[in-house]
Amino acid sequence: MILGERVHCLKLDLRVNSTIIWDQFLWDLGNFDSDPEEFARCLCKDLELEVSEVGPALAFAIREQLYECIFWERDSYQQKVASGVGITLLSTE
């Protein structure tokens, strides 16, 4: 299910044992079909990394940033509502 584009840049900078992953990519919060665990599995496969070792850390790092993006969007929206910016009142008459 897709609810409009809500694209954010996610940045990975993590170390798991002797593996260092430093990457960035775009993630659309509006696409509920996107799955951090599946993305982590595919990335591990593409980079020929051990999925059971690196995958959970990757998925956790992605989810952590997604939550930060969601809270940032919510706070940004609440500030707009409080200031009246971007609010359109519709008449029911």
Write a concise keyword list for the protein shown above.
nucleus, 22% strand, 93 residues, SNF5, elongated, transcription regulation, transcription
Pick out the low-confidence regions: none
Our count of domains comes out at 1
- Counting helices, strands and paired strands, the structural category is alpha+beta
Report the helical percentage. 40-55%
- Please trace the helix and strand order, writing H or E for each element: EEHH
Global shape: elongated
The DSSP helix count reads 2
Task: Please provide the count of β strands.
Answer: 2
Rg over CA atoms:
18 Å
Determine the N-to-C terminus distance. Answer: 34 Å
Q: Describe the biggest sheet? A: 2 strands, antiparallel
Question: Mean pLDDT, rounded to whole units?
Answer: 82
**Strand arrangement, largest sheet?**
1-2
Q: Note the beta-strand portion.
A: 15-25%
Task: Characterise this structure.
With 93 residues, the protein is α+β, with helices and mostly antiparallel strands. It has one domain. Helices cover 47% and strands 22% of the residues. The chain is built from two helices and two strands. It has helices at 36-46, 51-83; strands at residues 7-16, 19-28. Strands 1-2 form a two-stranded antiparallel ribbon. Helix 1 (36-46) packs across helix 2 (51-83). 6% of the residues are buried.
